[in-house]
Amino acid sequence: MRSTSQISERDAPFQLRGNSFTVMVLKLVAPDDPSFFPQLLSKIRQAPNFFRNAPVVLDLDDLEEGAGPADFIDFVVTLRQNSLIPVGIQGGTPAQQAAAFEAGLTVMPTGRPSREPERDFQRPAPGRAPTDPLPPRNPAPAGDAAPAQEFQKTTLIITEPVRSGRQIYAARGDLIVLGPVSAGAELLADGNIHVYSSLRGRALAGISGDTAARIFCHSLEAELVSIAGLYRVSEDLDASVFKKQVHIYLDDGYLRMDPLS
Fold first, then answer.
1. What mean pLDDT is reported for the chain?
2. Is 236 helix (H, G, I), strand (E, B) or coil?
């Protein structure tokens, strides 16, 4: 009989592999406010297909010590009853984290990039060969101040159409797509996103928190667009920008969409 260490991965009854997924973050500011769930349900009704069974992470960073849902288990059950699936939390005090754990949630990393990552890379699209690693850091000359940006910015260029189900992530840089982006596809970038054709899937720019990131596309038909976590779904798109060349950016915390002349 072969030992477990002798069983090849192909013969094993399971495989453990890393992957990345886009998960919505629900920031809790006043979860015990009586208007919390009525306002949340109103938002869900605006785009029911987008929110249906969507995994969410609860952000507790803005909660004061001792604050939080009075009953974490009941809070999670209510979210599930309204089609949102809580999977974890971010931040919070040890007491809040313990209550969340009792409700079946795990403690997630904050999602903010580490100041000293062990490795810098362009994350490849699924099923494709890895791209070249990012260039090494530029050391600051002796006696000079450190550069404002620690890593060189890169640009990932995709020349073929992006089909449904495919996710492309441009780490630490911009993403340029020359072909159409189908519904069900997802574009992510730490910097800007440019689509020189129709955008029917999702586009999330500035996902590491860059509020200066922008989205440009030749025909806006997106399921969702987002910059630094602020998003708008297809049901919220104004007729003045639908199927138009559009420039999307943040202006004083508001997600603006301006037609390009």
1. 78
2. helix
Find the helix packing angle between 72-81 and 94-102, rounded to 10°.
50
Q: pLDDT band at 213, cuts 50/70/90? A: very high
d(CA 136, CA 150): 10
Distance CA 202, CA 261 (A): 23
Three-state DSSP class for residue 6: helix
* Whether 246 contacts 227, CB under 8 Å: no
Other beta carbons less than 10 A from residue 167's beta carbon: 18
Task: Go through 112-150 and write b for each residue having 16 or more CB atoms within 10 A of its CB, e for each that does not.
Answer: eeeeeeeebebbebeeeeeeeebeeeeeeeeeeeeeeee
Strands 193-199 and 215-220: parallel
Q: Can you tell me whether residue 24 is helix, strand or coil?
A: strand
**What percent of the chain lies above the pLDDT cut of 70?**
74
Question: DSSP class of residue 19?
Answer: -
Spatial distance between the Cα atoms of 5 and 14, rounded to a whole number of angstroms: 14
CA–CA separation, 125 and 133 (whole Å) = 14
Edge-first strand order for the sheet with 254-259 is: 154-158, 173-177, 193-199, 215-220, 246-251, 254-259
Residue 210 CB: number of other CB atoms within 10 A?
16
Of 258, 113, 246, whose CA–CA distance to 173 is shortest?
Answer: 113
User: What pLDDT is stored for residue 67 in this prediction?
Assistant: 75
Tell which residue, 241, 233, 187, has the closest CA to residue 44. 233
**How far, in Å, CA of 133 to CA of 173, rounded?**
12
Query: Which residues sit opposite 154 in a β-bridge?
Result: 173
